[in-house]
Every structure is written in C-alpha cells, then in structure tokens.
Amino acid sequence: MIAGGGGFRVPLVYRALCAGPFAGLVDELVLFDVDGSRLAAIEAVLRDMPADRGSAPAVVVSTDLVQALTGTDMVFAAIRPGGTAGRIADEQVPLRLGLLGQETTGAGGISYALRSIPHMLQLAEAMRRHCPDAWLINFTNPAGMVTEALVPVLGRKVMGICDSAGGLVQRAARAAGAPLKEGTLDGVGYYGLNHLGWLYRLAPRGTDLLPALLSDHAALETMEEGRLFGQHTLLQLGCLPNEYLYYYYQTSQATEAIGQQRETRGASIHDQQQSLYPSLLKAPHPYKVWDAARRSREEGYLAEARTHGEQRDESDLAGGGYERVALSVMRALSGGGTAQLILNVPNSPVLHASSTAEVAVPGLPADAVVEVPCEVTPDGASPLPQDRPDGQFLTLMQHVKEVERLTIRAVVAGEREAAVQAFAAHPLVGSAPLGRQLLEGYEAAFPGLSQLWA
After folding, report:
1. What is the DSSP string of 26-70?
2. What's the pTM value of the predicted model, to 2 decimals?
3. pLDDT for 292-329, tens place per residue?
4. By C-alpha distance, which of 423, 371, 372, 365 is closest to 398?
5. CB 3.0–4.6 Å: which of 60, 124, 235, 342 could bond 153 by disulfide?
C-alpha cells in the first residue's frame, strides 16, 4: 500500500513493478490518499502507462485508510501534509527573515516535520491495529527525523529511504572507474543523517579509490557533487559530501540564489501540479503528459546550485532513484535475497555477524536514526559499522540530531518551547529571537500547528 497514492512520483513505483528486476514482486498495489481527485489522476496515468499487463500488479485506489491497510504486507509512505502550497510557506517564511528557504534543510525542514510527524504517527498506530506484521518503508520527509519519531511505535518494522546518498555512491564509483553492482556496497564507507552525510571510503576491491578520485579534476567534473562543491573544497574535506550539504557549505550563495529566482522551487512545483492534475484526467495520453512534467521537474532540482547554466546528468533525468531503493528493500524483506543499501535506521544494535561494534556511527546515541549502509534480510535492516566521523562532521551531525530530537519532542509532548528551541538551535539559524519569529511565521501560515500545543 502506498500512503500518498495520489503523489506525483507514484507512477515511478508502478513502472518499476511492471518490468525489470521487480516485476512480479507485488500482486496488488493499493493507492491510498485523502484526495480522491489526485488518486483518479494518478490512476489514469497508470492505466495509460506502456506495460506488460501480464506482470503488472492489480491496482486498487482507496480513500479509506482501514480498507487500504487491511491485508497489506508492505506500506510505502510518501505524504505531504499541506500539499505543495505548504511547501511554498516552508520556503518563504525563512526567506523573509534573510535565512535559507529550503524544503528539508534548515527551518523549512523543521516546519515540514512538525506537519508530517503527527500524520505519520497516526498511520503507524493504524498499522499496529490493522496490519501489525507489515513493514513501513518511509519516504515522507524529512525522512530521518520522521523515521526516528516512528521507531517507538513500530520498532525495527520501520526504516527510512532516500535516493540521494545511494546516488552519490553510484556516481562516485562510476567516476572512479569501478561501478558497483546494484544492491552491493562492498568497501563503501558512508555516515550521516538524512540529507547530511559524507562518502569517506570507496574500496570495492580493497583499495580505497576515493583519494585518487578527489585528485582527478576531470573525473570529478563528470559527477554532480564534483561540479557542485569544486575540487578545492573536496580535497580539503577529504571526502564527498551529500549534495544537500551545499546548503551548509555555501549558505550565503544558496540563499542569495534562491532569492534571485523568479519563484521558489516550491512555488514552481505548486504551479505545475495545479495545472497538471486536472489535465491528466482530460488528456488522451496522460502518461506522456505526466512523464514530460516529471522530466521538467527533475531538470529544476537544486537549480540554485547551478548558477552558470549547468545541466543535470542524463542518468539523473531518466528517473528511477528512490523507487529502486524502496523496492530493493521490499524484495529483500520478502526473501528475494540479501541487499546492501544506504537507509535511515536506528544506530544500534549492529546485528552484522562479523561486528562487535555497539553502534554503527560512533559518537551518536544508540537510539538515534542515522543514514548508513545496511544489510537487508527478511529479518530487517542491520546497520553496518562505520568509522568514527572526523571532528567537524561529527559535531555537525550531533548538532542537527539535537535539533531533530527537539522537533520530535515538540510534536510528541506538545511542547511549543521545544519547537522554538529547535528552530533557534539549527546551525542555519543560530538565534533565539529568529527561532521564535520562525515558529510564529509558520503558525500564521499553518493554523493547525497551534493544535499541537493546545
């Protein structure tokens, strides 16, 4: 079952289930959404999609959560409370204060979490009642923070996914001349939180290829992160950062670039979807209309970081990122073979047979959700032990983790002051008065937030 079944990216999941390595993985796909019109539009896209109907799963749409969950083995969650209009506010409230306005990073990410966590907790509780043996694969953003909020309810039955870390590893391996087989991470060292991580080792055959890659300007220019951060910065860091660290390492540049755009990324997507969904119900070939919109949306991803007309790689525009991660997890959980994937899971315990480590990322709490390579089997996802992060990396991770925990506490305990502290403590804010102004701005934009502290 997909919670958020009327979402724009749902056809990517269905397309992957109809052909290739995931064909036959699912017999029935239930799309659940609170918006029936969006469900109808996405259903039209799926009906029109070129596919081998012999391997395509049956599709059921529902606006009834209990009905959708009953009989479900796997739940895939990608919801956006407040819709794309909410994303506009997430971005604009901090921008008006001269701060970074981005969907999952900084103040916008905290706002998004304050709206997402309550709905995801309701979903988790409903799963406990109506499909207690089902796994929850979470893509609802901010993925790591939301997943951590759900662990007390679902335990190891929940894990968070994101394609940005895995995409970085694959791009780096190709640039180093040693592409990795999908589902394997041999010799890969990666640690972090969601949208805040670093590839620090790339040794698929025992020898670390990362130092040579960082010294090869031409090779770095072939990958998104090499162009984004530049060789000088990467050599200083001694590793490859997740693309979202651009907002930390180039905060002023990113904030200025976003401010100079005709409209924010959220406003652009909102305008696109406002016209797209009605057109999908009228178009003779809705799949073609959707796919053209998808490609246009991919071209605009992280546009503020490409200020000199740079284009995204064709492989990134083709689609096929996060749904492959989700379905790889599902296949491994279903007994389709062990897979190694970068996931968001609790830092402990490390269940890997060859490990005596107590946590995957030394320096972070055992119950903190981290983003690390994992081994996925029918028993769940086991985080693989990583090196202790260097000082600057660990300090930033600890800082942001504390912000995440304050945000979760604000929702679960109904503590408004914890929300103020979360905004104030974020390294991209760093001011108590700004923290209070941010929360007040978001409360004005989202009147329902005040119900959390009622």
Report:
1. -SEEEEE-S-HHHHHHHHHHHHHS---TTTSPEEEEES-HHHHHT
2. 0.93
3. 999 888 886 565 554 555 554 545 444 457 899 999 99
4. 365
5. 124
